[in-house]
Amino acid sequence: MSIQVGQAALFTDVVQERHSVRKYDPSWTISREEMAELLQEATLAPSGANLQPWRFLVIDEAELKQKLLPIAFNQEQVVQASAIVAVLGDLKAIDKAEQIYSAAVEAGYMNEQVKAQVLNNLRRFYADPASEAVKRSVLIDGGLVSMQLMLSAKARGYDTVPMAGYDEQALRNALQISDRYAVVMLIAVGKAAQQAHKTVRLPVEEVIFRNAMPEEA
Fold it and tell me: Whole-model pTM?
């Protein structure tokens, strides 16, 4: 099934209507073709040096979702949503650098000299994949692509909820996620069966500081 809305949705409407939904129609399915389109839109998000370290593990089989239920502390959206997307960050994203930058040269976006310089800098940065700098970088990029995924889903008429509540080691064991990948978050995607809980936001004046941070109280 597919919800044929959203491609022409106004961005302001999408932003204002996106909420974290936890009740989903378990009978609704999202085709793998449409999920691939949604994720392709998400990957238009920015990333450091355009290295695109995000990786997506899509769980849409009922049996596996049931297996994930206790790992995610029995949050029912795990089994009700059409799919759960595990957003991962590849700590060895440098392995794709040659492919990315060769394509950029072929497209005329850069020359070989710039490519060589950028690759040299990236190889130094990724020399230790376990470093805090690398992990921080892929987590930032993973957060960017996750938000874009949720907005893309809303524009198509679907709802989502980002999830940080899960046993990471049990998740890694269940899904065979190696230490090569940082786990950014899980995102449930599907058709809402119940509206999200209403929430409030701080007044924007309370979260904006101009030119200097205020003194601590």
Answer: 0.93
